[in-house]
Amino acid sequence: MSILVDENTKVLVQGITGRDGSFHAARMLEYGTKVVGGVTPGKGGEKAGALPVFNTVREAVEETKADCSVIYVPARFASSAVKEAIDAGLKLVVCITEGIPVLEMIENYHYAKDNGVRLIGPNCPGVISPGKCKVGIMPGPIHAPGRIGVVSRSGTLTYEVVYNLTVNKFGQSTCIGIGGDAIAGTGFIDLLSMFEGDPGTEAVVLVGEIGGEEEELAADHIRANMKKPVTAFISGRSAPPGKRMGHAGAIISQGKGTAEAKIKAFKDAGVPVADTPDEIPKIVKSYVS
Amino acid sequence: MKIYEYQAMALFKEYGIDVVPAELADKPGDAAAIAEKFAGKAVVKAQALTGGRGKAGGIKIVRSPGEAKDAARKILAMDIKGAPVKKVLVAEAIDILEEYYLGITVDRAAKKVVFVLSGSGGVEIEELAKNSPEKIHKIHVNPFDGPDKKRLAAAAAGVFKDSASAEKAVDAMLKMYRLFIEKDCSLLEINPYVKTGSGEFLAADAKINFDDNGVFKHPEVEKLRNPEEYSSQELSARRAGLSFVSMAGNIGCIVNGAGLAMATMDVIKFFGGEAANFLDVGGSSNPAKVLDAVKIILSNKKAKVMLINIFGGITRCDDIANGIVMAKERIGIKLPVIIRLIGTNQEKGREILGKAGFVTAETMTEAVKKAVRAV
After folding, report:
1. Cβ contacts of B142 on chain A, cutoff 8 Å
2. Tens digit of each residue's pLDDT (9 = 90 or more) over A229-285
3. What residue in B sits closest to A123 (Cα-Cα)?
4. DSSP string, A91-152
5. What is the ipTM of this complex?
6. Is the overall model pTM greater than 0.90, yes or no?
7. Of B4, B6, B100, B101, which residue is the catalytic one?
8. Which residues contact B154 (CB under 8 A, 6 or more apart)?
9. How many CB atoms are closer than 10 A to CB A265?
C-alpha cells in the first residue's frame, strides 16, 4: 500500500510544455504514472508527446478526470498555478517550484487548507509510491517497492537516503519531499499520521534539516501518537548560524532551529538519529523484519 | 536580503512613518556639519548589516559638532563583526520619554504574518522573549482578511499609556504592514519606537529584512542591495546563480541540492575533515554553472581538495560531467578531484568523466573518506 498516490492516481502536469515540465512528464510516464494531460495557458489543443494539452486546469480536469496535479511552473506564476488547481477541484497538488515568495506561500497554504486540498511543497522533489506512481522529479530507478515510509525536507538528500535503503533491501511504501521552504503546504505531522494509518508502511525514515521547528513538533507527535518505529537524520550540524544554507527554510535564526536541538528532540522522544545517511539502513534493520 | 538603517528609514518615510531626523555621512567632517544642524545634539550611529553595533561602541551620543567629528572618526575606523563601517547616520538627539518595540515578521509555525508589540523598547527582543515573554504581545494576521484593527487597538491599549498614543501606534503599525506586504519583507522592526518630550512618536531605529524569494518582484528593492552583505566568493556565486556559503575548512565542495550539500559537509566533519564551503549547484541542469562552481572553489586558496557529490534528479549527470570536463579543459584543476555521480543519466555522465580521466566513487561515504585522506 501507500499514501497520497498509487497506481490509480491520474496526474496532470501544469507547465507541461516548459523545459522541466516536458522532460519530467516523459519520465513520469516512463515510470508508469498515469499522466493524463497537461496545462499551459495558450497551448490548449496541442499535444505534448501523446498527451493532450489544455489551456486551463478546469478544462483538463473535466476532460481527463485527473485527481492530482504536479506544478513545474516558474516562481513568478507558481502561486496562481496552485490557486488554479485548487479552484478546479483537485485534492492533491504537488508544487515542485523553488523561489515562491513567503507571503504568497502563506496565502497558498491557507487557501489549500480552507479548501480541503493536500498541497505538497513547494521547492520539493514530489511524491513517489515506488512501483505505482511517480509525481515529481526524483529518479525512479533508485526506488524499490517496500514498507518503509520516507518523509523529507530535502530533494537530493532524500535520494541519497532512499538509495541507501534500496541497496540494503528496504523498499519504500511512499516517499514524500515536503520541500525546503520556510512555509510548506504539508508538514511532517500529517504525513507521519498517514504512515501510521497505512497498512503498507512498517516504519518511517524522517529527513530533517536546520531551521524552523518542524522536527521538534514531529518528535512530540511521534512520542504521543506513533507506534511504528521512526529513524531520523538531520542535516546541517556543521552549518554556521545566521546563514541561509540554500533552502529558504534552512537557517539558524537567533539560536533557534539548530541541528543539535532537533537531534535532542528526537532522541528525547525515543527516535534514533543516524550520524550519516548510510547508517540509516543499519538502524532500520534493528527494528524491522 | 538585509539593508542598512538609513535605507530602512528612507522606506519608512516613504510610507508615512515618522522617523528621527537624521542624515548620512561617510566622513568625520560631514558628520560634524550634520550635527551642527541639530545644534550639536546628536547621535552618531555606525551603519552595519549585522547586529552588535551598540556593544562594539558604534553608537555615540554627542553634544557638539566637534564631538560628532571625533565620534565619526572612531566609528568609521571600526569593524563590526568583521565588516568595516563605511557610513554613519547622524541623528538628532531627541528627548526620549518612553520606548516601545514595534515589529512585524512571519510566524513560521502559525504560517501567518504577525505583529509583535512590547512596552519594553530599546532592549534586545530575543532576550525579552526568553526572560519576560509576557511583555510581548503577538497579533497574527489572517492572510485574506488583513490586520484586525480592533485587535491591534486592544493590544496597543494594553501597552501605551493613553488612547491618543495607542491610536498613533496602531496607525504606525498599519503603515508598517502596508510596507511589509508591498515589498515582500521578512522582518520589519522599530526598536525603539519612542515618545518624545513634545509628545511626538518617532522611529528611533529601523530594520528591514526582505524575503530573498520576493525581491524579483520589486526592482526598487533590488536596487537597495548591498554587495558587502556577501563575501567576494559569495558574490561571484550569486552572479553565477549558485547558492554558496564560505566555511573555514580545506575541502571544497560542489553538491547538488541544499540538504545533500549540508549532509556532505556534516559527513566530512564526521570523518575528521572540514568543508571549505557550502555550494549547491543543483536546481536545473547547466554545464556552465559547474564551470562557475569549479572556478569559485579554486579561487579559495585554502581549498586543498575538491569533492563533487552529485545525485541527479532534476539535475542530469551528463550535464554535470560535461561541466567538469569543460572546467578541466578551460581552466585546469590543480587540486585532487573526487567525484561521486549518481542518478539521472548516470551512465552517460560516468562515461564522459571516464573518457576525460576522472575517477568516480560509488558512495557518498567512500567519496568523503577519499577527500579527507587526500588533504
Report:
1. 110
2. 999 999 999 998 888 888 888 888 878 899 999 999 999 999 999 999 999 999 999
3. B283
4. SEEEE--S---HHHHHHHHHHHHHTT-EEE-SSS-EEEETTTEEEESS-GGG--EEEEEEEE
5. 0.94
6. yes
7. B101
8. none
9. 23
